[in-house]
Amino acid sequence: MNFFINGLGFLKDILELKLGIKKQIPSFSLHNNYSEFFVECDDYNKKLLVVKILLTNLTKSTATDFKLEVYDKPRRKFFKFRRKEPNRHLIYDNLDYNFCLSGCSMYIYVYTDITEIDLSGIKDYFYFKLTFRNEKGDIYSQEFKVGYEHRTNHFVFTDDCSVGPVRLVKRNLRI
Questions:
Q1: Span between the terminal Cα atoms of the chain, in Å
Q2: What was the pLDDT predicted at 149?
């Protein structure tokens, strides 16, 4: 029975290739228009810049099992910078989405301590990588670049924001 089901999956893949039907894999877009910044104080009177990042699933496929990929495992760094420097950006809120349907959005919150920083000189960017599964259980990753700067009395996103291609990390061989 298991061979029969696996055989049908194989035939389906061949038909999709022959007919030119492309498989839908989840892909996310970064929306600066609906993302935002806010400043708040924590319990220790540190001034925190919180970046609320909106990601939208652009495909007809559902994405599940979201995780931020770790760039530096020993130090548990989830963000990468253009320069080698201390990891200033941290996860503000847990990534507690179980799934993201086609056309739906989710937020990722990132913060950095700006207590002792001259705000007029802030212009920075960071990378983060999101891993997720599609409906078949295949694991994919996608990297995002978020750039921002301080202007007069507020923060804005810069043209440094970009979204990388979706990459297959591991194919699920079970059907």
A1: 12
A2: 85
| Alpha-carbon distances of 16 from 22, 24, 65, 71, rounded to whole Å | 7, 11, 26, 35
* CB contact set of 102 (below 8 Å; sequence gap of 6+): 57, 59, 60, 61, 62
The contacts of residue 29 (CB under 8 Å, 6+ apart) are 55, 56, 58, 163
Token pair recorded at residue 19: 């007919």
Could you tell me what percent of the chain has a pLDDT over 90? 6
Q: 103 CB contacts (<8 Å, ≥6 apart)?
A: 56, 57, 58
Query: Which residue has 């802030």 as its token pair?
Result: 122
Q: Is 79 exposed, middle or buried (0-12, 13-18, 19+ CB in 10 A)?
A: buried
Nearest to 88 by CA among 77, 104, 102: 77
